[in-house]
Amino acid sequence: MHNEGFVSLVGAGPGDVELLTVKALRLIQQAEVIVYDRLISGDILKLIPAGVSRIAVGKSPGAHCLPQNDINEIMINLATAGRRVVRLKGGDPYLFGRGSEEALALKKHHIKFEVVPGITAAFGCSAYSGIPLTHRGLSRSVKFITGHFSNDEALEYDWEKLADQDCTLVFYMAMANLLTICSQLINAGLDAGTPAAAVENGTTQSQRRIISTLGLLFAEVSAQRIQAPAMIIIGNVVSLATDIDWFQQSLEMTVYDESLAASR
Ligand code: SAH
Is the pTM here over 0.85, yes or no? Predict the structure, then answer.
């Protein structure tokens, strides 16, 4: 009997293993092969049953490990050989995840697939850093924006359109172009005092958060050596961060407790 291969394009969420969906967990447990990205956290990889093949196809910023075509080919070959493949992707597959490119490639090769949404990094960072993406009276809309163009092309936007006080701006992959982003928004008329934040390793035990302003964010991010993966959130909603934070404080308390314990 010929087994028909199948690919599940699965969003694994932003890092905290408990932010996996029940469906993602079931698929991980039933997979024959898992093809995963660099951003998949170690805690999630620990859920993969022993004996299941794992293929890392991760990309790190500036150092592309495997070209997208090769990743597509791996999945196509596995599925054609009858394997049940889980393609684990950070966050949500369809938000800056190239999941749709993979879906198109599978479709072209007549391979059956499904897509399982995941909690995108913006939602994870928002909840775990005390920054709602909308709030009555502070923000009426949200924009998800890439801070990096493919092939390292210069970041060109209609900055005047983006410089809207009523809209929360969420930049993914923005670390290399952070200075450009902040200065272009200020040049386009967004107040340099607009609250702005960076959230590094959001939702994980190593989350770090910088609460600043548009004018000062780049300097603070550089001083604190904030690195990818990090999310940039710009807008009045960032002003709520200290009031409704529940996670960052608990992390800092843990660090404090540990240093107290160590000094005893
Ligand atoms: N599909 C993913 C995004 C992939 S692009 C999603 O839906 O989340 C990779 C970018 O996502 C990173 O450069 C960073 O901006 C953001 N990102 C992913 N995980 C993150 C995390 N744990 N904390 C902060 N930003 C994160």
Answer: yes
